[in-house]
Design goal:
mainly alpha
């Protein structure tokens, strides 16, 4: 192998780059787990809130039905607006976009996709929509 064809791991020393990679993997894994747990807790809160509204609506007959329908439609519309306004890449599962990025067909999605998917998903699922 020629000197100018050395891999990046060979230049930094294989053990040094593996340690950095392991530390980064731990940080990313912990951050991902925290965000996932926060999303799950938020979904549980939204589910309880929706249940309270539905129980309340049963005592109001048709007016309760209208309130629940309008609130759920408005929350779903806000979720759709967030996605279309701030991060169109957030629509869908994201798997086709990741594959296109890996193939070099599309640029990487911006960082703002994370809060948009978090808040948009929370609002949409909280309103009773199914995701995934």
């Amino acid at each position: 192998m020629a000197n100018d064809e050395k891999l990046a791991s060979d230049q930094d020393g294989e053990h040094g780059s593996l340690i950095v990679l392991a530390i980064l993997a731990l940080i990313v894994g912990a951050a991902s787990g925290f965000v996932g747990a926060l999303f799950l807790l938020s979904l549980q809160w939204a589910d309880r809130f929706r249940d309270v509204i539905i129980v309340w609506s049963h005592s109001k007959a048709f007016a309760g039905f209208l309130v629940v329908s309008i609130v759920c439609a408005a929350v779903a519309a806000i979720a759709a607006w967030l996605v279309s306004r701030f991060s169109p890449h957030a629509s869908g599962s994201g798997i086709p976009h990741v594959e296109a990025v890996l193939d070099g067909q599309l640029p990487q999605a911006p960082f703002r996709i994370i809060p948009v998917k978090f808040v948009g998903g929370l609002l949409a699922i909280g309103a009773g929509l199914a995701l995934g």
